[in-house]
Amino acid sequence: MHSASLLKWQIGDVSVTKVVELTSSSLGAYILPDASSVRLREINWITPFVDDEFRMVMSFHSLVVETPDHLLIVDTCIGNEKARNYPRWHLMTTRFLDDLRDAGFREAQFDTVLCTHMHVDHVGWNTYKHGEQWAPTFPNARYLYARDEWQHWQSESQLEYGPVIEDSVKPIFDLGLADLVEHDHVVCDEVRLVPTPGHTPGHVSVHIESRGEEAIITGDVFHHPCQLANPHWCATADGDQAAALQTRHSFLKNYADRPVLCIGTHFAGVTAGRLVRDGDAYRLDC
To answer: Which of 57, 102, 120, 196 could disulfide-link to 268, CB 3.0 to 4.6 Å?
Structure first.
């Protein structure tokens, strides 16, 4: 695995390892239409998160959280052999599981799978193709979903997400491996969920605390660090843009200028840093 795919951070007795499925600079114009190359050039600290043409780079990765007593994986990317509308994600065949194993983890070791929400790029490796069936990738884990999130997708009839639920979420429920939890659920002594609605109704972030040190895994509160400099830039995928904007402002107010490691779920490259005020906006201090 190349070094860009494997980063590791220590938060007290908890370690967090990033395992990348893919990176892309082709989605920026669709996900964040305000984030043009011209506008990105105006952000003087953004270079680690853009390509040579100042297009925003996004990472699609899982975060493995090791506590003294638990092994968790947060968000499971897109997955292999899944029929998807976006051509690059359609019937993928990546080395994700090989890279996860190369990082020292085996699927059967995990006891918890956390999905910040149920979008296509966060639930894909919940399952894998086994013959003609979708089997759980992490067979000994409990899969935790925010109750509000599950209820939302149960009531939605969007054709885009029907197949995602059918191949990556519903099989977990059918096998009795899913637990519906509240959006402020305490997973273990070191890990708890934080409600961050807007992108989806039941969206959560993941807070880690150990030995006086803290980290927060963003989920899709932010899709790219440029939104720290421009919190008003909304993603096209935000289901409720007004609520997402309010959540971003609250998130920044709560975590900026504090010794909290902010780990971006879609932040490429260095991926994590401290949130600090930068005039009327914010930046990621890596």
So the answer is: 57
